[in-house]
Amino acid sequence: MFRNATVLLILASFLCFLYGIKNLFLEVEENACRMTYMFGVPQFSKVNIKDNSEFPHYGLFYYYEGRILQDVNRMKLKGAPVIFVPGNAGSYKQVRSLASVALRKGMDNDRGIHMDYFTVNFEEQLSALYGGYLENQKLFLRIAILAVRTLYKEANNVDKSIILVGHSMGGKVAQAVIQDPAIAKYINTIIFISSPIDKPVVNFDPKINEFYSNTDGYFHNKRTTHLPNRQTNVCLNYQDKIPHQGNESKILDNILMISMGGGNRDLLVRDGLTTSQYNDIHAMTSSIPKVWLSCDHLSAVWCLQLVLVINRFIFGISVIDENKNVFFSPDKYYRTQTAINYFVKPLNKPKSNEVYFPKLNSGSSWQEDSKIAFRKVFKNGLRADYNHLLPTAKYKELKKIYIEIDSYEDFENDWVFGCTAHRTEASGLYCQKGTSLSHFVQTIPSHDNYRYMVLLDIHRMLKYYPDWTHILVRLKPTNKPTSLKIDAYSVEDRKYKIKAPKFSLPKLKTLVNETVMGTIHTGVLIEGLDEPFPTVQFDIEPVECGDDEFGVTAKICIPWARGFNRHIHLTHDTKVKTIYVNVPFSTPSGYNTTQNPVTLDLFLNPSCRYKISYQFSIAGTFSKIVQEFYHWLPAHLTAVLFLVLRNQIVSFQNSEDALFVKPYAGFFQSKSLYIVTGCRLLKKLLLNLKFLPISPDTSNYSFYVSIIIHGTAIVLSIVSVFSIWTILTFHGNILHKIALKLTRLSTASSEILMKVVTTLPLSFGVLFISISVGTCSGIGLTLATIFYFLVISNAYKDYLENWAWDKAKGIFKRIRQKIRSTSKNKGTVALSQREIIAVDGNPGQELIPNNENGDTNELDDSNEVANEEKCSYFEGLENVAFHITMLMLLGIMSALNFGLSVAWIKAKYQGHIHEHLPDPFIIPTIITLTCLSVLLQLGAPRKSSGYHYVAIILYLCVCGCILFCQEIVYRLSYLITFVYVCVALQEVCYNFYTLMHK
């Protein structure tokens, strides 16, 4: 019963993972980015770089437009320099959108400020898969920065700082280049677009890990860090812990760093990786003013809404001198404030000067209203000023007052004031002067325009301005439709506290049965969301909307995650009327989500009444688990294979009927689930040990995440082994031909090679070690995996075909006998009742029926023959399960070298075969292939007591996979090599022991 429960748990885990993949696009809205079009023909002028013999295949280009060719090396440049750094598989031509908009903006602005955009060509290298590229790209970027400075120095004899814009892995390269103090002093600002800054998406090889570790170690001592703590609540104060002045003790603090994440549409770089502890500003594109949408990983470089904001910021920090030379401001405080204004929220400073209003003879109208809910619509616009007075005395008990205007025009000028009203017989009630409250104005997105709103605390306002009698809303004349909405309320009536439902079946709970007509703003405080995968689903259902259309804008704020606000807009055209709330990364240690809960602000249509309900979202939770933890699968799959190998070894030593040759032998197991549980306890112990050379993964998530990932790995291992058995049994010849085409070997050559390996298996290692040294470890491992498969197929093909044929005949015989037995039992009641009679005078013996021919011994004889055939099959197949598992481990090791293999093939194809590509896995590859050839030479496995020690080591390696390899995936290669060494060493020791005792 317990075994059945375990099987169900594993199957359920796999189904949960598949369900998460199915719903991976659950929160992904349609792409609302507008395409950026070029104003002229895009052109790229190559910059001449001296002393670039080390990277001749890289290039630096200057962007311009037009049909007339230009040579940047002869131009007199006066603009401010911006260098675009492409990322993984990125093209240098991706700069077109940013540069084209800047070019047009430079032509249109009256100040004469313009930008010079440069771009780096890294030949679309896969820098996220192979870390050997990163160091080369950093070194060339350093050369490119110096070359750009040379252009300006020769042209203007001036010293200009540079802005770096890095997309994807290009952002990490841009950050790493300022490790050189000689370069850092020339960098003004770095803008990261969808870049994994502090941690790679997947840590594929030691070079990636080394690149990130070196950068982090340098920045830790040279730049101020900004990490959330127990008191952090950016929902109340976004600028908390943002440095505005350069710290003289930290030489890199004067460089402004701005990072941006694409949001739910970016499935390549998840949200939590796009921020950094060293950044000054972080923003998600869904929360950037005038962008308010999610960008996928590629559209982030051409999305017009985002491109415009980036260029506005760059132009905003630019200054021009009397010689028309454009510079970037060196003032860190000014740049930071400008960045907040463009990427976070508009900064309207409080105005101390009072504003005087014209009298009634100007045609303006004045109106006083003290309604709790008020809405006025001007469908045809306004011909004169409209002034609406709200008496503070009437709203004092309510404490909060929400004021909103929306229009197709920008109401960024002053439109809300505090004032002391006067009443005259001629003019009525009006304010002669007032103090602007525009610094409280916030902008939220709407369907086709913007909503400008102010949320005022009446109690706090009157504390500082007790003489104010009214709040004045002043609308200026416009030809466009405009509306004014007012919602006054008590905080306690509009704030709803809930605890995030834990992992459970979805159960819809009603939060608000029906909102009051006229309600515009309400908030939900969500406690208990402290991990990046639990998801709460809010359903906003319109009960009645009158003549207006359904519309809701939601703002989600994560108090410990600066810059991760999200805006979601739902309309009648939106396919899903649901809001999913989750967090990008876990809370800091000791953080109290009860005191600092996640906030969900809902901005409603006051003419509608809504029903608000919530529940735990299974689809959202599982999709987040897939997105956040899919990279754990290689570690858990390897752990499963280690345990399978251990079970196969034990079965081989102890079994007499060789049952372990069944395809599923060792794969249907539950011990690994116990090991996963034990590893969580062991990790707490290891984290306290300071003498360990490497530390285990420090992430601490709910237990069911590990169960889902591990259960999925078990099912994947079962599917993989059944696939290999099926291919070996039925398609061995077809696969053999395919392998010959892949390796470009003729049939005669392959037969000769196969005979050589069969006669002298040590030649297997010699051949593929030579290939690995001559090319790279990835190529050698891939070819070795293919050839190892051919060796297994050639050695066991006949046995497997006979075994499969015997299994098929056995199944057919059992079916036929069951049919005959059923038909015979229907006609023979006496036999069906199994009558007991006396035989030879001995009662109690059972009557045994004869077969159709009366021969009672035929069945026994056939069983003996079948048993003899079965034993012969088992003798031929006794090693196949072992070799299939070793083949799968070798396949995982070659898959981890995929990036290196692609890099080597691409370098050879492009003629850069002499380019230095570090091979971090060459030594493990040589050791693994040597051990594999030894195992083939000695005919492993063989029965010996020494395998018990190997079984114990394999248990430890299973723990090592889960503790040390979930996040740092490349360590699996070293663990697999270690297992190969242990198995081969045991075989060698046993063989030596046998020879010594003969």
TrEMBL record:
It is an enzyme of class 3 (hydrolase). InterPro entries: AB_hydrolase_fold, PGAP1-ab_dom-like, PGAP1/BST1. It is found in: Endoplasmic reticulum membrane. It is a multi-pass membrane protein. The keyword Cell cycle does not apply. SUPFAM superfamilies: alpha/beta-Hydrolases (SSF53474). Residues 1-20 form the signal peptide. The chain crosses the membrane at residues 701-728, 764-791, 880-900, 921-940, 946-965, 972-993. Keywords: Endoplasmic reticulum, Hydrolase, Membrane, Protein transport, Signal, Transmembrane, Transmembrane helix, Transport. The keyword Protein transport applies. Residues 77-315 form the GPI inositol-deacylase PGAP1-like alpha/beta domain. Its EC number is 3.1.-.-. Involved in inositol deacylation of GPI-anchored proteins which plays important roles in the quality control and ER-associated degradation of GPI-anchored proteins. Belongs to the GPI inositol-deacylase family. This is GPI inositol-deacylase. It comes from Musca domestica (House fly).
